[in-house]
Amino acid sequence: MIATTTMQSAGASRRTSDEAHKVLQIEGLTVGTDRADLVLDVNLDLAAGETLCLVGESGCGKSQTCLAAMGLTTHPVRRKSGSVRFFNAELTELTEHELSDIRGRDLAMIFQDASAALNPVQRVGDQVAEVLRVHRALSGRQARTRAVELFEMVGIPQPQRRVRAFPHELSGGMCQRVMIAMALACRPRLIIADEATTALDVTTQAQILRLLKTLQAETGAAMLFVTHDLGVVAEIADRVAVMYSGRIVELAEADALFTAPQHPYTQGLLSCRLHVSANAPARLDAIEGTVPMPASRPQGCAYRSRCPRAGEICKRLPALAPAGSGQLAACHFPGAAA
Amino acid sequence: MNGGELVLTDIVKLYGGGWFARTAPVRAVDGVSLKLEPGKTLGIVGESGSGKSTLGRIAAGIEVPTSGHVLLNGKPYAPMGSAAWRRERASIQVIWQDPSRALDPRMPIGDQIEEAMAAHHMHDKPRRLARVDELLELVGLAGLGHRYVHQLSGGQQQRAVIARALSLAPQIVVCDEAVSALDVSVQAQIINLLNDLKTRFAISYLFISHDLGVVRHISDSVAVMREGRIVESGDAQAVFSAPQHPYTQSLLAAVPAATPAERRARDARKIPA
């Protein structure tokens, strides 16, 4: 647990040394198919009330990390090694039956495409009520009443009427709110949100992010938020893990990541993004090349084929080690850009 | 190649409705006038359903407006489907969001670029093949002409689409969310490429996107759309640094902060208000 000790010495006061306070602890998680590894030796932990953002480009393994954590990998992808502890339970050792008892109750997931995640032929209120009937053993009537309350909580106007709507009758933003209501129905201790706001318009995205933060503050849930958008990270993250080609390359407090990124990949991501509030140089500092395919990942540091600092030593895999102001970076040459 | 001038006047596009329909038609585009200057980039921003894509299709001549005029270099488009209209297609090209669907999965990308020129009877075959190689090199795909779509990454696919569009020496390129599906690092590469091509060939771009950061960077002027109308337009720098219309202001305010420090500063400003 290098991660835990170093982050604590960085002075994160909300985190305590007591391992029991960890909501989620992922250790040495490797996920892949028979041919290639998609997630390699990932270590992560989350405390109650904390939001950890998992950032990276498509195919870097951020979604697979989440799915594997919840035991939701589908053939041919499988968890090859590693442990996932949720409070005191080792999720990897639970049976499917025990897992489904936890999923939806203590551990909730919000996906990107809400209209695809919802059942198109069932009224949205009934879908939320179903969660409560299964996990909380409420009667049909109690569950429906609670569904209306939940709709109100997530800011759906006219909740009495909207519970009777079908998913196609609602806008993308409203469907996402229904998903959130469903996820929060049993007051989960951990919310895993996979690109939960990516498909939404900016104004809706801002509302949903605000909503998630408010609800998190009320319930004290931990949140693992997967996104490729560094703007979203700036909005909600306490800590950030940057993934590249299956591995975590930098793990930092949100402020440190934005002010003093240590890994050249993080620096590249930050320098080529465009933001409305500022002018970028006429010619962007694009990262040349593309992310290697998992099957043809180079030996050692996977970023070395695109990295301006790469040297001979980069053929050896760099360990995630302390760098900069309290963060961890997996790089032989960490630090500010030359 | 020389950038063309595109003028749209009072464009209206209605969908649905009609004599026997019970519902009023949807006013997808509701009286839009705008001008794309030669060799410039005009950005169109708006949220989903604002009519920006419909406007792009009308501007490209692949959708007929219910009323209003589109003039390319002072001339209206020929009737859709006519031989003259098909000839006109070469001068105005569209780049869509999803390159994997814009390309033929069963044909190598080099052949697809050649086919576009052949369809317009441009050059003879040896010249076309030479042109394919030139274009592939221009977009950074040198030597990859024999590849199929599934053998290319998303960014490479979009480069192939750009090469195919350029093969016809267009005056105007309509980019409809052309970089939205790409990862940030690749997005920056494609934006650099589009800007290089604009400088080199004086192409005019109609750049449609919901991503305000990208539009600010790439556009000379910008128009903000909402519910089929343009609520604000002008010089891109001016619109983004000092938005006048309340809708533009609320749109910009909703954009996620650039850094956590900026977010805190914004939230601190909001609370006393």
Largest sheet of chain A: 8 strands, mixed
Regarding CATH, which class of the domain at 6-16 and 25-111 and 168-242 in chain B? Alpha Beta
Would you give the CATH topology of the domain at 6-16 and 25-111 and 168-242 in chain B? Rossmann fold
Spans of at least 5 consecutive residues with low confidence of chain B: none
Helix content range of chain B:
25-40%
Beta-strand share of residues of chain A: 15-25%
- Write the H/E string of chain A, N to C: HEEEHEEHEHHHHHEHEHEEHHEE
Write out the CATH superfamily name of the largest domain in chain A.
Answer: P-loop containing nucleotide triphosphate hydrolases
Q: Helical percent range of chain A? A: 25-40%
Could you say what the CATH topology of the largest domain in chain A is called? Rossmann fold
Number of DSSP helical runs of chain A: 12
Total domains of chain A: 2
Q: How confident overall, as mean pLDDT of chain A?
A: 88
Spell out the CATH superfamily of the domain at 6-16 and 25-111 and 168-242 in chain B.
P-loop containing nucleotide triphosphate hydrolases
Structure in a nutshell:
The complex is a heterodimer of chains A (338) and B (273). Chain A has 338 residues and is of the alpha/beta class.
Description:
The complex is a heterodimer of chains A (338) and B (273). With 338 residues, chain A is α/β, with parallel strands linked by helices. Chain A has 2 domains: 2-106 and 190-199 and 217-297 and 304-329, Rossmann fold; 107-187, no CATH class. Chain A has 12 helices and 12 strands. An 8-stranded mixed beta sheet of chain A has the order 6-7-8-3-9-10-12-11, with helices on both faces. In chain A, strands 2-1-4-5 form a 4-stranded antiparallel beta sheet. The model of chain A is unreliable at 1-17 (pLDDT under 50). Chain B is 40% helix and 23% strand. Chain B has 11 helices and 10 strands. In chain B, the strands form 2 sheets. A 6-stranded mixed beta sheet of chain B has the order 6-7-8-3-9-10, with helices on both faces. The N and C termini of chain B lie far apart (53 Å). Chain A binds chain B through residues 57-58, 172, 201-203, 205-206, 209, 228-232, 234-235, 237, 254-255, 258-259, 268-269, 272-280, 282-288, 290-291, and chain B through 47-48, 153-156, 183-189, 191-192, 195, 210-214, 216-217, 237, 240, 250-263.
